[in-house]
Design goal:
It is a single chain. 26% of the residues lie in helices and 50% in strands. By secondary structure, it is α+β, with helices and mostly antiparallel strands. The chain has a domain of 123 residues. It has a 23-stranded antiparallel beta sheet that branches.
């Protein structure tokens, strides 16, 4: 009986406790989101918490980074309290009901947030199929049902994100755009500050653009795979990204496959975090500049630039490499192949103290080749390449043209032609 009474007491008290914790969590999330970035702000109003549920309203303010102009969107939410967590169901305000009904006459979009007391949250967004036709202009928009899900755990330090969008078609009298089977998956693990690790996959089965009096363009089987990981026992990070495109069709002529690899290695974690924070500060200062103290903004930007320079010096001193180890693009006349890599050596403490410029000891190599027939087929391209061949920058090797370069001592050697480079930072 005692055990039963204890369970009953917990069951009675739990929804109230969960409701209290949920309100505190939501207020904390709102504060963290607003402090983490300047582009959009969350405001919560009239949070009315009851025993088994709650409701509140709010505003999302989105700022245009180019103009500083703000756009506000109202929302409302209903909260259901359980024994171990809550379910937040978001919807647009009632006054927008008629506009939403025009686009979604049968089923409405559904955005929910499920929280757990142990620090796990699941966000799900379901958008039903859309079919809109403007009889006057002949324009139409058809979109299949889409689904997105994000599971955030370990108190915000781990996230798994999935987006599924079967596709959409936009039609106008002079234009047709279609998107087919978009998929996105991302796993993120917080390392420190603004540095995250993880891997992601994005794929698009097809994209087509057709405009009147213009050659049609189509991509088939586009995929991007990326992974970011730690190196040197967590002191630095590296990343590998692979982008592939199976077929490109232009003006009814198809060719492929295409492949591009991008890598970076040896980025010092602390200096990389300092760099990203300084860049964010500069962006924030620029967005808050209208109507503010211009001298204060300028001072903030100068301080951020100083931090950026110090972070770049730190990154260079620890050594790094980045670039494209593999470039391959198919053309009707043969492939365009190449490699572009840049490195900076790790320096001793004495060498770091004597550093005056970030890129003084930067080295790199460039190697690109393309079919000669491609240059001859397109006069615009030929007009650009011909002077380079005459200057020796581009050399002909059989049925191909090639550019080879080497970067060292702030000078770029292109096929034996030395080009001094200005110092950076």
């Amino acid at each position: 009986m005692v055990a039963g009474a204890a369970v009953l007491a917990v069951g009675v008290v739990a929804p109230w406790a969960v409701g209290y914790v949920t309100e505190q969590q939501w207020q904390s999330v709102t504060t963290e989101v607003n402090q983490a970035q300047p582009l959009f702000q969350l405001e919560t109003r009239d949070y009315n918490r009851g025993y088994l549920g709650a409701d509140f309203t709010g505003t999302i303010s989105v700022q245009n980074p180019d103009t500083g102009e703000e756009h506000e969107f109202e929302y409302q939410a209903r909260v259901s309290h359980g024994v171990t967590g809550s379910l937040l169901d978001f919807s647009p305000p009632d006054e927008l009901g008629s506009d939403v009904d025009k686009i979604f006459p049968d089923e409405k979009p559904k955005l929910t947030l499920e929280t757990r007391l142990w620090g796990t949250a699941i966000v799900e967004l379901s958008v039903p199929a859309i079919s809109v036709i403007n009889e006057e202009t002949g324009e139409s928009f058809d979109m299949s049902e889409s689904y997105s899900r994000a599971e955030i755990s370990d108190n915000g330090s781990h996230a798994d994100i999935v987006m599924l969008w079967p596709g959409a078609v936009i039609r106008a009298p002079d234009l047709r755009i279609s998107i087919e089977d978009f998929r996105f998956e991302q796993t993120m693990e917080h390392l420190t500050g603004g540095v995250w690790l993880g891997d992601g996959d994005m794929s698009l089965s097809g994209f087509e653009l057709a405009a009147r009096d213009e050659p049609s363009l189509r991509f088939d089987d586009l995929a991007i795979r990326s992974e970011t990981f730690t190196e040197d026992d967590g002191e630095s990070i590296g990343s590998e990204t692979l982008m592939t495109l199976e077929t490109l069709t232009a003006d009814d002529e198809s060719f492929g496959p295409h492949r591009m690899e991008f890598v970076f290695s040896g980025l010092d974690v602390q200096n990389w975090n300092n760099l990203t924070e300084a860049l964010t500060e500069m962006q924030t200062a620029a967005l808050t500049a209208p109507g503010g103290d211009s001298r204060a903004v300028m001072q903030q930007q100068m301080e951020s630039m100083s931090r950026i320079n110090q972070a770049l010096l730190g990154l260079a001193g620890e050594g790094f490499s980045f670039g494209f180890p593999k470039l391959s693009f198919a053309t009707p006349y043969g492939p365009i192949d190449g490699e572009i890599m840049v490195q900076h050596p790790s320096l001793s403490d004495e060498e770091k103290d004597q550093m005056m410029m970030v890129m003084q000891r930067l080295t790199g190599n460039l190697d690109l080749s393309m079919p000669l027939a491609l240059v001859e087929q397109y006069p615009e391209l030929g007009m650009q390449v011909a002077p380079l061949i005459k200057q020796g920058m581009v050399v002909q090797e059989g049925d191909r043209v090639r550019v080879q370069g080497k970067l060292e001592d702030l000078a770029l050697d292109i096929n034996g032609n030395l080009i001094p480079l200005p110092p950076l930072f």
